[in-house]
Amino acid sequence: MMKRLLLGVLALVAIAVAALVVFVATFDAARYRDEIDRWAQAHLGRSLEVRGELQLALWPRLALEAQAVSLGNPPGFISPALAEIDRLALGVDPWALLSRRLEVDALTLEGVRLHLERRSDGRENWRFDRPTSVAAPSGAEAEPAPAAEPAGARAAALPLALGRVAVREAYVLWYGAEREQPFRLGPLALEAGPVASEAPVPLKVTLVLSKLSQMSLEGRLEQWQHAPRWVGRLEVPEFDLRAWLEAQGVALDLPSSLLRRVSLSSDMQADAAALHLDALELRVDEVALQGRLGADLRGDRVETALTGTAYGGTLRLEASLNDLAGSSHWQGEGGVKGVDVARLLTAVHGKSLLTGQGSVDFALRGRGLTAEEALRSAQGTLRAQVRDGAVLGVDVERLLRDASAVLRGERPTGGGRDRTPFEELSGSGVLAGGVLRNDDLFGRTALFTAEGAGRVDLIRSRLDYRLQVRLAATPEVQRDGPLAILLGLPIPLEVTGPLASPSYRVVTEELAKDFAKEAIRRRIAPTQEESQQEEAPPVVPAVKEIFRGLIGR
């Protein structure tokens, strides 16, 4: 009895194997190509072509393999297809296949190119519209498409059970409206599975950034059949972002030292409606930030709140960006405190004409995503203060001594230290149309104070300021003859020209008028202190000598 049962089982196995061999041997690739394309047209509204080989393999396991697969685009897009796959392999359960069911225990895709495109009218090629009818072979009547169902219901109805999903050598190409070539992201790799029932799906994505750095996104895909949600961790080790962007054809109008050391880590949650980065840690060169970022993917809105350190000081920022697909507008407020001004300006502009510890508070809003658009549209207020620093490229004390020499009929000596140390430099301004207007500039040094107003044209990189300098009545100044004659006078100082190399000039014509008025006043109505001085030589020369010095006669 046992022997007969064993022989029966062996016979059934032999029949099953023979049937399987016959099925593989008689596999009609052309028939399945058409069925695959009809299925895609019915469910996706797109063509799904297998241009290469389509075959079954028995070893090392039963597998369906397709070469040169492409998923088409809807009309009106310039990219060649939504997706192109060099090789697609399905490892299948042979026993289920004999029952005319396809159960996949492994899915492998190699050489994937995903072409993502958003048109100027807002249409996106990755959004699938249900077709109104299914394409039929030539001469046959078109088959109506199935009734529309909610996306979640369709996904839930699919009898999907995957043991493992692997994607290798994948690239994402983004076709922007103003780019001559697509933005290329890759190579990417993906490992996922097992995929079964309602259980979360483990998933890991890696992206090669450089020879020494690889981004990783690791976590789980929850509720994937109804409302997929990603929960995981994003890690980007330090890499050269500038070199990576330049390799993508992105030109940066920034000093070559910027964006050389960038790293990122964050907890991440995402679904079809929103993206959240929590416990975010971002480093960009000498800036280290912590905080959060949230994006409303349906409403095209991004919000962030960050704090951190930057160039020896602290930084805080709250900002939002709205309508990313249309006329993008943004707003932000925050500030920096105690930063090394020279390090910051050198990093941003390549050089600095200012040193010291600086603080800035700002509240700005504007439109546009490019630097030029944002600068031209920006509006708001700024307040800045720098302490214990120096203005490089000018020696204001030497300018004052030269002006005094002109008033005394002498030749200016020039020279100087090419820097003006100060104790404080502060002011506030209003930004509009790329121009910062400032009416309360104040500076204080050990020798003088300066007050004035002006404007900085950030688009043309030029400034135009008018200051009044007043010497401090210290014992040192009072004993210094060339400077002492300027005591009590408002000394007009103009600062104009390019931001990178402005020119400084004492307006001696105006200074001479005030100087002459003061000299006349002292001769007509000397102060009590002056009248008590016996036979003291005059502090200022006669009016006639003043004008003689000005005209050189």
Automatic annotation (TrEMBL):
InterPro entries, alphabetized: AsmA, AsmA-related
Protein name (record): AsmA family protein
Residues in AsmA domain copies: 3-183, 305-440
Coiled-coil region: none
PANTHER family tied to this protein: DUF748 DOMAIN-CONTAINING PROTEIN (PTHR30441), PROTEIN ASMA (PTHR30441:SF4)
Region: Disordered, residue numbers: 127-148
Low complexity composition bias: residue spans: 133-148
Domain of life: Bacteria
Pfam families: AsmA (PF05170)
